[in-house]
Write a structure and sequence with these properties.
Elements: E1 2-6, E2 9-13, H1 17-25, E3 30-34, H2 41-48, E4 54-57, H3 61-69, H4 71-78, E5 82-85, H5 93-103, E6 110-114, H6 124-128, E7 132-136, H7 142-145, H8 172-181, H9 185-189, H10 195-214, H11 220-232, E8 236-237, H12 240-247, H13 251-263, E9 267-270, E10 286-289, H14 292-298, H15 304-308, H16 313-330, E11 337-342, E12 348-355, E13 358-364, E14 387-388, E15 392-395, E16 401-402, E17 408-411
Parallel strand pairs: 3-6, 3-7, 4-5, 5-6, 13-14, 13-15, 15-17
Antiparallel strand pairs: 1-2, 8-10, 9-10, 11-12, 12-13, 16-17
Helix pairs in contact: 3-4, 8-14, 11-12, 11-14, 12-13
Amino acid sequence: MHYKLMGTELIYLERTMRAKVEELSRFFPCVLVTGARQVGKSTLLKEMMPEGMRYISLDDYLEADRARKDPIGFLEQYGEPLCIDEVQYAPELFRAIKMRVDANRRPGMYWLTGSQRFHLMSGVSESLAGRIGIVELFSLSRQESCGLGSGVPAFDPERVSDMVCSGTLCNINDLYTGIWRGGYPQLAQQTALPRDAFFDAYVQTYVERDVQALSQVGNRSAFVRLMRSAALRTGQQLVYSDLARDAEVSPKTAAAWVSILETSGIVTLLEPYHVNSTKRLAKTPKLYFMDTGLCSWLAGWQNPDMMMQSTYAGAILETWVFGQLMRRFANAGIRPRISYFRNLDGGEVDFLLEQNGRIYPMEVKRSSSPSSADLKWARSIPPGQALLMPGIVFCTAERFVPMADGACGFPISAL
């Protein structure tokens, strides 16, 4: 849950992830919630902590130092059940946790948070395999921002008309205002908080703590320049030489720094699709920021109206759709198989969702009147073992739009 100011009264913003964390805690000794800094990991677990569970944050330098030097003694001091925040600052704890879990295995012994993606976090897979349930939390989804976070299901293309959430429908101006502000809980809770001040402090803290924990970046100004360059290229194919030129670093350094952004949950790299993954038509991933507020701030947009009227409007809209889809799956504990398609002629399908032996083409269009022509490149997708299904056009209409051959237009604000 998160608090939101309504006049002088605080109301709760329920996080959809709560149900999944509760489920995992019934089966696993450890639960790990990963995600970028300040997306709400700590608040979520603090609101959920059962009676008797203690909380400790390794954002505290002294506590982190104690945990690194004497992990066994650290765990003995605090006992169980225990919630350990920002566990990536003391990876030595993972082996000690494994020993305690193996000695007395019970569900819900340890709740952990970490500002690094779980599949890239050193120590988790080696030490706690089979003992830990892992989920990734993003900044607030559209439903959560509207106070509708409870019971939101994963996006299901087989029931796409049922996925429309009428409580989130809005016009294009309000949509871009939400995209511009983003989903960080503190901005949602404090609507009077200046966006520029929040993101300026956010990036400074991120570079000083998370980036330095992952790699000793000597030139912090160059790293921020690379972040700004990446933000201007969200939704585009990743070209390291372009980022390197803007940041005034080598392409090798640019690649290493993009890896840091990915590890810390700031960006996601979307791989291209091909029936033979070793012989892709397009071999370059696309880069997407996971919060459009941070992305648009880094890109320099001072208000949503100017952004909406610019050539950047399509890329940031596509970025927002990708982020909302990822939230719908991640909040249900699902890692979806999403890719993009581009042929040698430059024809592209924004997203391909693969599940249950089927492929669902998805296009993002800044139009309130979607048509089957928007999905024309889906017919270029090479045949494979998966069955190609009718496509979905995410559009700015304020209602669900049935189209020919089973395709449909889905209102973006309802994601």
